[in-house]
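CHAIN AND CONFORMATION:
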Amino acid sequence: MEAQRTPLHAEHEALGATFTDFAGWRMPLRYSGDLAEHHAVRTAAGLFDLSHMGEIRVVGPGAADALDRALVGDASGIGVGRARYTMICAADGGIMDDLIVYRLAEQEYLVVANAANAPLVTTELTERAAGRRAEVIDAAAEYALIAVQGPAAAATLAPLCAADLPALRYYASQATTVAGRPVLLARTGYTGEEGFELFVAPDDAPSLWTVLLEAGAAHGLVPTGLACRDTLRLEAGMPLHGHELSAAVTPFHAGLGRVVRFDKPDDFVGRAALSAVSVSGPGQVLVGLVGESRRAPRHGYPVLDPETGATLGTITSGAPSPTLGHPIAMAYVLPDHATPGTRLAVDIRGRHEPVTVAELPFYRRPSSSSPATAKAG
């Protein structure tokens, strides 16, 4: 089946993007180069096309109740205009997807799912909402999604936006206009930097993309692709479904047990299994690793005991860190080898390269008070 194209595909072609097929979509991988784009987001701003993400509306007087049952988080506790990071889990506690849930009105929510998982999430939400006064609507065709990320994101948007950007709190959203076009503006992102995400009508996306590029040029903004998005989120310790998150692990394995709300008054799917893991503890836990050589660990590489060579776990994501100047990785390891400062090794093509367990995230933006938890890809 031919990969889908976002409403911005022609703009990416005109900018000379290199493309890749990702989760059924033809997406820009890079424009000027991975390092240049990564550093632009850390020092100025980057413009991302995220229109491959899945959007699902849940509406009706029973919408909050339906989402409370379907998800591990407390959807009914989200204030109108606010958002929350959460997960949808199977009955055995395995992570089916991680999500951001925006409450747009008292009886209306917007659920943003990873592109590859959006059909599954839509089906699961529909089934779990049965018997409740809520309608689940696949709304992906209603939206294109553009992200402006980096220290200059606000400066780029401010002259174009009708909203009071400094007043928009982290993990909040507001219906407003940007360059005269209606948008749902959210202060969220997946880079570890200040930033905003703009949900717009697909027909408005090309002109808005062009306006943002022009407005941001004076601030150093550049178009940015999936390659630098991955190294940015890795530095920020943000998990990616299919790597750190999967049906084989629970939120407690991933160090995200805080998103599970056992204090909700009613039952939710996966509650019993997750409660058991919260008491017994997971068999493996997610850690950060800092490499001591120039060779970077990659997804799937074994993590070893440096003295015995015994396998202790597996790398989930790894790359050279453009910001920090050395290799970094995340991995699942046995709990008794997860203490920061513990020295381990990674089998990189037959050589045992030294690594040290480190606290996540590897990178925090200066003066950052925002939690390093955000949407995936």
Observations:
- The chain has eight helices and 20 strands.
- The two ends are 21 Å apart (CA to CA).
